[in-house]
UniProtKB/TrEMBL annotation:
Gene3D superfamilies: NAD(P)-binding Rossmann-like Domain. InterPro entries: KR_dom (IPR057326), NAD(P)-bd_dom_sf (IPR036291), Sc_DH/Rdtase_CS (IPR020904), SDR_fam (IPR002347). This is SDR family oxidoreductase. Residues 7-201 form the Ketoreductase domain. Pfam families: adh_short_C2 (PF13561). GO terms for molecular function: oxidoreductase activity, acting on the CH-OH group of donors, NAD or NADP as acceptor. Belongs to the short-chain dehydrogenases/reductases (SDR) family. It comes from Croceicoccus ponticola. Signal peptide: none annotated. Keywords: Oxidoreductase.
Length: 267
C-alpha cells in the first residue's frame, strides 16, 4: 500500500480501541493524524496516545454531538494544515437494554453520538475535503465505522442497531450525493464483528450487572463461538480496513460496505 505522506487525517474516538488503532495505522503510512476525543488536552491518556502515534500527531477535544465543536475543530485544522484528506467517524457508544425499560434520554444519546456525530463530521469536513480531494487519486476519503449490527439485530441492542443501521445508509446516501455533484470525496463504511475493545468490555459488564450472565468472560466466549473463526477480532484487524479505504488504493470504492467479522454474517 502506498504512503500518505501528504495526507492529513482526523479520527474521532481516537484515544482507544479501533480509533486509536486506526490513527496508528494512518500515521504509519505517513499521514499527519488529528485524534479527537472528550479528554482534556493535558490528560495523561492524551499524551500516551500521541506518543504512540507519532509522526506529528495532534489532539483536539471534540464532542461529536456538538456542532460548534466541529466548526472549531475544522478551523484549527485549516489554520494548522490547510487541508483534510481523511475523516474517520469512529466515535461511538452502545447503550444496551430492553426496549420497554430504556429511557428516551439513553436512546437519543446513542443516536446523537453514533449517527449525528457522523453527519456533523461529514457536513463540516466537506469544504476542506472537497478542496483537498482535487489533488488526490480518487479524492478525499470518509470512513464511517458501522457494525455487523447495521445488518443484523441482537436482543437488548435496539438503540445501537438503529444507530449503526443509520450509519450504513447515511454512508451510501453521502457517497451517491458527492459523486452525483462531482465532489471528489469517497464515503465508505466498515462493519466490524465482535472486537476486543474497552467498549465491548464495558457493555458486557453492564449485561452482567443486569443478570444476563454471571461474568463478562462467559459472554465473550459465547460471541466467539458464534463467529466462524471462533475468536474476537483485534483492533488492528479493523484498522487495516480503515487504512485501506483511506488510501488511494481504494480510489474506485465509494458507498461500499467492508465487513470485517470473522465470517459472522455468512451464517
Amino acid at each position: 500500500m502506498s504512503g500518505m505522506d501528504k495526507s492529513v487525517a482526523l479520527v474521532t474516538g481516537g484515544l482507544r480501541g479501533i480509533g486509536l488503532a486506526a490513527a496508528q495505522g494512518l500515521a504509519a503510512k505517513g499521514a499527519k493524524v488529528w485524534i479527537c476525543d472528550l479528554k482534556g488536552d493535558g490528560d495523561a491518556e492524551v499524551a500516551d496516545a500521541l506518543s504512540g502515534i507519532g509522526n506529528g500527531a495532534a489532539y483536539l477535544k471534540l464532542d461529536v454531538t456538538d456542532e460548534q465543536s466541529w466548526i472549531d475543530a475544522m478551523a484549527k485544522i485549516e489554520a494548522s494544515d490547510g487541508r483534510l484528506d481523511v475523516l474517520v467517524n469512529n466515535a461511538g457508544i452502545d447503550g444496551t437494554g430492553r426496549i420497554h425499560e430504556m429511557s428516551l434520554e439513553l436512546w437519543r444519546k446513542v443516536q446523537a453520538v453514533n449517527s449525528d456525530g457522523a453527519f456533523l463530521g461529514t457536513k463540516h469536513a466537506y469544504a476542506m475535503m472537497e478542496k483537498s480531494g482535487k489533488d488526490r487519486k480518487g479524492g478525499s476519503s470518509i470512513v464511517n465505522i458501522s457494525s455487523i449490527m447495521g445488518f443484523v439485530a441482537f436482543p437488548e441492542s435496539s438503540a445501537y442497531c438503529a444507530s449503526k443501521g443509520a450509519i450504513r445508509l447515511f454512508t451510501k446516501a453521502a457517497a451517491l450525493e458527492f459523486a452525483t455533484y462531482g465532489a471528489p470525496i469517497r464515503v465508505n463504511s466498515v462493519h466490524p464483528g465482535f472486537v476486543q475493545t474497552p467498549l465491548l468490555d464495558e457493555g458486557f459488564e453492564r449485561m452482567v450487572q443486569r443478570g444476563v450472565a454471571e461474568k463478562a468472560e462467559d459472554l465473550k466466549q459465547q460471541v466467539a463461538a458464534s463467529t466462524p473463526v471462533n475468536r474476537l477480532a483485534d483492533v488492528e484487524e479493523i484498522a487495516n480496513a480503515v487504512v485501506f479505504l483511506a488510501s488511494e488504493e481504494a480510489s474506485y470504492m465509494t458507498g461500499s460496505e467492508v465487513v470485517v467479522d470473522g465470517g459472522y454474517l455468512t451464517r
